[in-house]
Design a protein that fits this description.
Order of helices and strands: HHHHHHH
Low-confidence stretches: none
Number of strands: 0
Strand content: under 5%
Largest sheet: none
Helix content: over 70%
Bound molecules: protoporphyrin IX containing FE
Radius of gyration: 19 Å
Structural class: mainly alpha
Length: 162
Amino acid sequence: MTGLAAIPPDLLSKAGVAYVHYLSFMLCFGALVLERRLIKANPSKQDATLMVITDVVYGIAALALLGSGILRVLYFGQGSEFYTENPLFWWKVGVYLAVGGLSLYPTITYILWAIPLRKGELPQVSEALAKRLGWILNIELVGFATIPLLATLMARGVGLPG
Ligand code: HEM
């Protein structure tokens, strides 16, 4: 216990925000993998409901990821200029926004599924739609896997001018 008390509180809050950043990243990635596994034409009621729930978890985790990222830039990192002056940081933000933009299509699709599901009916999912969603999820997974590489480089000052 004395060991824990000796840790400066600002270090603990930095670690806490970093933890939220990693946890939300894991949740986002896990949700995308699950959606990728579940997507198929004419899903069962159980699978379609699970997809809708998974996407809600993904959405909340993506917001927590963004929020904790912004907090790290502003208050819990190495000073905001350390990041904003690094093009790799903006690439990271750009890839995040691109993936977020791409996920609007699946998200709107699942929201529309919720309407028949609430009436106890099955959503109509064609082979073509399932294939399209599968590809979008593949691209999102690749995007998400690239971001930590940009992050680890950026965190070590790689890409900073001068
Ligand atoms: C726009 C959204 C984001 C912002 C503003 C942001 C910001 C940050 C900041 C400021 C750090 C701290 C770097 C340091 O230790 O000095 C960081 C670290 C990190 N971020 Fe993000 N982040 C965002 C999105 C993401 C996403 C989407 C992922 C994963 C897919 C991610 C993964 C990581 C990882 C793995 C680290 C640790 C890097 C290291 O310490 O080696 N971030 N992020």
